[in-house]
Amino acid sequence: VEITARHMDRDTHVLAYHFDSINPKLCGLLEEMRRRRHCRHKARLDALARRGIHLPDAPVPEVPGRRHLAQALAEAGLANSLQDSFRRYRSEFSSGAPDSGGIPMIEVLAAVNDAGGKAVLAHPPQGTTLEGLRTLKGWGLAGLETFYPDFSRSWTSTLRAWARALGLGLTGGSDCHGVVPRVPGYRNIDPALAEWLWDSGGNRSSSGGMPCLALSGAN
Fold first, then answer.
1. Residues in the chain with pLDDT < 70?
2. What 3-state class would DSSP assign to 200?
3. Do you find a cis peptide bond into 56, omega within 30 degrees of 0?
4. CA distances from 10 to 28, 103, 105 (A)
5. Residues forming beta bridges with residue 170, ordered by sequence position
6. What angle do CA 166, 108, 63 make, to 5 degrees?
7. Which residue in 63, 67, 72, 73 sits closest to 31, CA to CA?
8. Which of 36, 175, 14 minimizes the C-alpha distance to 108?
9. Which residues are CB-neighbours of 213 under 8 A, at least 6 positions away?
10. Residue 147: its pLDDT value, please?
11. Cβ contact 78:53 at 8 Å
12. H helices present in the chain, as ranges
């Protein structure tokens, strides 16, 4: 599962692997994340309405995200594509209710660990530092998403070196949230590098699993 956390005054994504899917603490945190997503979705719709744009027939996903709204605008003929939606309605997409941002990072990491999961910092942005990662490890961070479609070779190498220095595991992936622009398999990781995810009894299965695209909305 991908969770939007708040850290250093910005939304930051955390990937949680192999957790107890009925853990009360983590389930409560995910419910709070869904609530915040709906608040932000409504704020964006209100901003569009002030511009005279209404989408009465657009479905509201269980976990609504920016991509869902962009798709609805494109399907309604109000934009030529997803990317055109993001460009044309940049101001409206930036709208949000006061409490619609990410959940504090320390709370997210605590909840994932409480559920027996492994927390990974998703696509660490430029500006991430070794000392900053050291702090996150102290809070319960277990790994870094090091292999990512938009990363340069030098940034990947830097992240690998930092992960090695701090004893953090490595993950990677396509960051697929729809058919385009990143399909599953667009970016891979050597399976041997990801074996740590299954260590220490980390082979729990989640009940009632759903396809990754069904609930995607991190963007």
1. 179-180, 200-219
2. coil
3. no
4. 22, 11, 10
5. 144
6. 130
7. 63
8. 14
9. 176, 177, 178
10. 94
11. yes
12. 24-50, 66-75, 82-88, 90-93, 105-114, 130-139, 153-166
Contact 63, 37 (CB under 8 A): yes
Under 8 Å CB-to-CB from 72, ≥6 apart: which residues? 55, 58, 59
Tell me how far apart the alpha carbons of residues 112 and 13 are, in angstroms, rounded to a whole number: 13
- What residue type is 78 in one-letter code? L
Q: Which amino acid is at 157?
A: S
C-alpha span between 200 and 113 (Å, rounded): 13
Give the integer Cα–Cα distance in Å for 70 and 35. 20
Tokens 């995200």 correspond to 65
| Rounded distance between C-alpha atoms, residue 182 and residue 19, angstroms | 26
Confidence at residue 95, expressed as pLDDT on a 0 to 100 scale: 86
Q: Which two tokens stand for residue 30?
A: 């995910």
